[in-house]
Specification:
Blueprint lengths: L1 H11 L6 H21 L7 H20 L2 H25 L6 H18 L4 H43 L1
Helix pairs in contact: 1-2, 1-4, 3-4, 4-6, 5-6
């Protein structure tokens, strides 16, 4: 829902070449959603999901009342950021649960979307810039988490050895 709102706001604000990025992101999300119905775990829509959908609907109402897509985009980015921060933390704590190549590809794709905007238009740049920063943070968290998980046994072994002496 959030990606679709971002895509709609980009279309409304006159994006052209950079629409491919948002459209592919929505397509990927729909595919993952469809796969999660068959193979996912948990409830179909939990309380947190319902709150996100209500907030997204609020963004759509604000857009409809003001005819300014910026409100919907700002709400979309804000809501997405809440989940994004949780993903960054998860990627650091348990980097093996995320796919580095996928997140890195998303990071690179966001960079290309920024270039595709072709002008200094903050409304059109907001979503790809946000995803560039978020995907970069996730990649960085995964790399730090992997380094931490590799170094931790070495550090623990070193401490144990020194304590025994």
């Amino acid at each position: 829902m959030l990606g679709a709102i971002a895509l709609g706001s980009q279309i409304y604000e006159g994006a052209t070449a950079s629409l491919w990025f948002a459209a592919m992101q929505v397509t990927g999300t729909v595919v993952i959603f469809a796969l999660s119905i068959k193979w996912g775990t948990g409830t179909f829509v939990n309380r947190c999901d319902a709150c996100v959908l209500i907030a997204a609907a609020g963004g759509l109402v604000a857009w409809a009342l003001t005819e300014t897509a910026v409100y919907a985009l700002a709400i979309t980015i804000s809501i997405s950021l809440l989940g994004g921060v949780m993903t960054v933390v998860k990627a650091y704590r348990d980097p093996g649960t995320e796919t580095l190549t996928t997140w890195f590809a998303s990071f690179c794709t966001a960079a290309l979307a920024i270039v595709a905007v072709g002008e200094l238009n903050w409304v059109l740049l907001a979503y790809p810039l946000y995803l560039f920063a978020l995907n970069g943070a996730i990649v960085g968290a995964m790399m730090l988490g992997r380094t931490r998980s590799i170094a931790a046994p070495l550090f623990t072994h070193h401490q144990t050895k020194n304590a025994a002496q």
